[in-house]
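Changelog entry: the Peptidyl-prolyl cis-trans isomerase record was regenerated in this release. Current contents:
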Amino acid sequence: MSLITASSRVTLHFELSLEDGQIVDSNFEKPPASFTFGDGSLLPDFETALLGMSAGQKDTFVMSPENAFGAYNESNVQRIPRSQFDMDLEEGMVVSFADMSKNELPGVISEIGEKEVVVDFNHPLSGRSLTFKVSIISVEAAE
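Regenerated structure tokens:
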């Protein structure tokens, strides 16, 4: 029986849910997902939680915000002059911005004022504890 190590390819069903039970993402009703340990598909702490598990095992982990999508950071909330937007805006919509290095940076429009727009660049799940439920389908050595 193969145990999950830092050099495994893992096929699994997973579910992410919030504290109130609301499901954020799940593939239990779909084909299982596969990833190679360390390929960036899963957050590092989610991968670490799987170490030592084997095919057929199921488990549930509660991931603190720090181990999931980070703590909510007020400095990631920016006020941008309304004049910089040449589109119709709605609260809650996601707009893509470019950072100093020209990398794409999504921001959520959280408030629309006459002169400025408040944009939240925090990950939508930052500051939230998540429940990570897994069912390991197969474990093999990564190539």
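Strands lie at 8-17, 23-26, 33-36, 58-63, 77-81, 94-98, 104-112, 116-120, 130-141.
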